[in-house]
Amino acid sequence: MAVLEKPNIILIMTDHFRPDAIGRSTPNLMRLVNNGTKFENAYSGAPLCQPSRVSIVTGMYPSQNGICGNMTPPIPDDLRDDTFMNHLQDAGYYTALIGKHHYIDAYGLGIDVVTEQDEAIKQYGFDHVWQVVDCDENLHNDDRYTQYLREKGLLDMYRSEIKKHASQCGPYPLDEEDCEDGYIGRIGREFVAEYDSDKPFYLNLSFVGPHPPYWHPNDLQHDPQKMSAPLGAPDSELVRERRAHYMDKCTIIDRTIGKLLDTLEEKDILDQTVIIFVSDHGDNLGDFGIWDKRFFYEQSAGVPMIFHGPGIRRGDRNVGGKNSKALVSLIDLYPTILSLAGMDTHDVMKNRDGLDLLKILNEEQGAFRDELYSELGTSVMIRHGNWKLVYDPEQGGVQYLFNLANDPTEEHNLAGVAGYEHMTLNLVQRILSRYILQRQFTHDKEERRVQKVRMAK
Fold it and tell me: How high is the pLDDT of residue 165?
């Protein structure tokens, strides 16, 4: 196999994958960790699917790109044409999406997304699109996966079982190769195995799990009694059973990733391929009594983030991979992926806050940040050093204040507690200053806008 001047790039996306789900149950992800870099303080731009995923491809927070919730209209054409995938195409990459995207919401529409959305998704910067929507969403929409099940004569049975059992962790009707994530993984491996262009490729391999419902092929592999108890909420057999099903779904994704690594090795391109593993957000999974994302607790707004491959700094060979404690965000993927492709990101990053993580990996001076944000609706989270504050003017102001050094499990809310007024005021001022700088009209901003218009003419 010819050596490429630029690396192939595979962005593996998951949905609802908690940062603490990586470990003994995910040996293939640990293989990436042990031979690469894991960011221990990585956050989603928004703890919800559509705003998080759009923030990744635009490199902008929801307050900047306008996608602040699910079932939101798509981004305007100027932002769609400015995704990092479009820039990768300009840099000579062949770009592919296999699996879930959620840049355009199809929930409840009752459409065939292949015929009605493929071309629209390609305009985000993809040469090749193979769409799969969420389980349960495919009750009323058709996609590549429902086409596959229909051809095998399994679709009616599958949809019937979803209606009967999925919300109750009922018995899954298909084997692992035919389940949603098994199917996505197999299509991804086929893409890699059959790819024969001289161009480097970018592949967004995007799984729908471990998003609920908590059902999956095979008998339950994780012992519910060995699952950790929820934080800040009553423990129960049902909570632990659901947690065990969740970890089984993570394990299935991990096995699929292992098969992808095998395919890359068989094709002799693993050492020419950068692999990035992330999730759009985490999952509270019963912590604090919450069975959802949409909150700014560590296991919900926090995400796993692993880098592996050429150009990725790793730890000492005797101790395994490198764990970075730098504050990083999913919006950092935009400049980092373009930097991996050898592009100069100076111009495209003028209105973006993301950092080039390659500079952090190389520990370059000035590459680190001391604070970052996550947003959802009218709520905003700031992480500044070891402090985290959540502010929502619609809910009365400061909701949470945590010192993560002393309270990593966030069980002691310091909002309103005497002695912490100065820190609270400092963090709120930082949030408000940021929004004023972003939004306040100034003559300098108008001057730049007019100049941009003139240049466009």
Answer: 76
